[in-house]
């Protein structure tokens, strides 16, 4: 089998469907209007990770669909689209996931010492029970077959792609007045068992999703004195790596 032949892929169908003139698909790509640009930057700058500000009212299906369409518009390595979106509304399932979080969070807490541990204990790090909807976003490492264009030398690019989908959803949610909180404190296998996720599929994000009326004006971890935003100028290097103090 030639190395780029893709048994599970769509290459033959895609070739058959390829337009005679691909230039027909080139469309204007100038800058947005100032108002449109401001809206994009506003979504980026005011997006927050939400743990506690969720309203209980359910999200309409068409809104959820728009968020999922935004996620599904993300870039992906070799157009692999490795994501799936598991929607969880049932309180009973969310309660089981919260128990998995709680156990892992106790373990995490013990990894900090002294005052830092006490500070950690005061943080709220999830909204699993409060948010009316959870979305588990996964990465199917086998999608597109064994050889995926662009992923040949870095298999992690499938997960990077899935993270792009998460960020698209997060920004679209901000524009919709919907808060999103990413929960990563659990043993992946515990959540996989609850949702019946197969071995080759990775959990990338557990997102708590719900309407919000208020958001912090800066990261909650900064508000609560855990860690501040780093100065951008210290993170930008010209032409190559530069020495930087431990941050
Ligand atoms: C990969 C990833 C995992 C995260 N996991 C958690 C988590 O388990 N619990 C939590 O409270 N926040 C979690 N967060 C949110 C971060 O704490 C948050 O993004 C950061 O503090 C900056 O705040 P902001 O998102 O409001 O700007 C996670 C964020 C990312 C990107």
Question: Would you give an account of this structure?
Answer:
The protein has about 250 residues and is an alpha+beta fold. The chain has helices at about 10-15, 35-45, 60-70, 90-110, 115-120, 155-175, 190-195, 220-225, and strands spanning about 85-90, 135-140, 180-185, 200-210. The chain has a domain at about 50-215: NADH Oxidase (3-Layer(aba) Sandwich), CATH 3.40.109. The chain has eight helices and four strands. The chain has a four-stranded antiparallel beta sheet with strand order 1-2-4-3, with helices on both faces. α3 (about 60-70) runs antiparallel to α6. The longest helix has 19 residues, at about 90-110. The radius of gyration is 21 Å and the shape is globular. The structure holds flavin mononucleotide. Flavin mononucleotide binds near residues 219 and 220.
């Amino acid at each position: 089998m030639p190395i780029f032949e893709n048994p599970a892929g769509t290459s033959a169908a895609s070739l058959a469907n390829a337009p005679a003139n691909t230039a027909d698909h080139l469309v204007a790509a100038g800058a947005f209007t100032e108002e449109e640009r401001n809206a994009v930057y506003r979504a980026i700058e005011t997006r927050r990770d939400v743990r506690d500000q969720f309203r209980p009212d359910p999200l309409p299906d068409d809104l959820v669909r728009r968020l999922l369409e935004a996620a599904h518009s993300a870039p992906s390595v070799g157009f692999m689209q490795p994501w799936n979106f598991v929607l969880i509304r049932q309180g009973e399932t969310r309660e089981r996931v919260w128990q998995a979080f709680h156990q892992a969070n106790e373990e995490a807490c013990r990894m900090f010492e002294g005052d830092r541990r006490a500070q950690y204990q005061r943080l709220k790090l999830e909204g699993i029970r409060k948010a009316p909807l959870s979305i588990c976003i996964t990465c199917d490492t086998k999608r597109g077959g064994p050889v995926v264009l662009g992923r040949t030398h870095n298999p992690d690019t499938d997960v990077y792609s899935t993270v792009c989908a998460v960020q698209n959803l997060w920004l679209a949610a901000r524009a919709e007045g919907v808060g999103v909180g990413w929960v990563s404190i659990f043993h992946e296998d515990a959540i996989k068992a609850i949702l019946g996720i197969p071995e080759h599929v990775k959990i990338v994000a557990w997102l708590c999703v719900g309407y919000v009326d208020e958001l912090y004006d800066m990261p909650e971890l900064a508000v609560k004195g855990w860690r501040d935003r780093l100065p951008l100028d210290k993170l930008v290097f010209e032409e190559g790596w530069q020495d930087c103090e431990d941050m």
